[in-house]
Amino acid sequence: MIINQVMTTNVLIAPPGESLKYAAQIMEQHDYDVLPICEDNRLLGTLSVRDIAVKALANGLSLEENSISQFMTFEAKYVFSDQSTEHAINFMTEHQLRRLLVLDRGYHLVGILSLDDLAISNKIKGIFAVKQQHTSMAC
């Protein structure tokens, strides 16, 4: 199966100049633990709940007065939308990730792939395999 067949495509993003408060509100409202940071249609990195909690809040820094760019991770892990889900699973396992950003070959963000996406696609694939098995059985 190909990643673009199972990924989530409606992904919210934030620009690097926005405040940490802005990012935290998006993450809270949409139950994100990682937020892609983009500018001019290009992925720059990610901001995680951990980035906010450990790097900012634990040091007593204001969410309103500090920007995303000060705390984001610039080396985002990603896969391409035309790669196989098997590749994504191996990559996620190797890097111990629950979510992966998905880019097209022009390096534009086109989605996000989560363990939930993979589990649902495998369940559906399993249901179709069982249905096919039952319909091809002879009496």
Could you walk me through the main structural features you see in this protein, from its secondary elements to its overall organization?
This protein is an alpha+beta fold. Helices cover about 35% and strands about 20% of the residues. The protein has four helices and five strands; from the N terminus they run H-E-E-H-E-H-E-E-H. The strands form two sheets. A three-stranded mixed beta sheet has the order 3-4-5. Strands 1-2 form a two-stranded antiparallel sheet. The radius of gyration is 18 Å and the shape is elongated. Residues about 125-139 have low confidence and may be disordered.
Topology:
Blueprint (H helix, E strand, L loop, with lengths): L19 H11 L3 E6 L2 E7 H8 L21 E3 L4 H11 L3 E5 L5 E6 H21 L4
Parallel strand pairs: 3-4
Antiparallel strand pairs: 1-2, 4-5
**Largest sheet composition:** 3 strands, mixed
Strand composition percent? 15-25%
Shape: elongated
Strand order of the largest sheet: 3-4-5
**Which percent range fits the helix content?**
25-40%
From the helix content, strand content and strand pairing, which structural class follows? Answer: alpha+beta
Uncertain spans = 127-139
Radius of gyration: 18 Å
Secondary structure tally, helices: 4
Order of helices and strands: HEEHEHEEH
How many strand segments?
Answer: 5
Short structural description:
By secondary structure, the chain is of the alpha+beta class.
Question: What labels would you give this structure?
Answer:
3-stranded mixed beta sheet; 4 helices; alpha+beta; 139 residues; two-stranded antiparallel ribbon; 19% strand; disordered C terminus; elongated
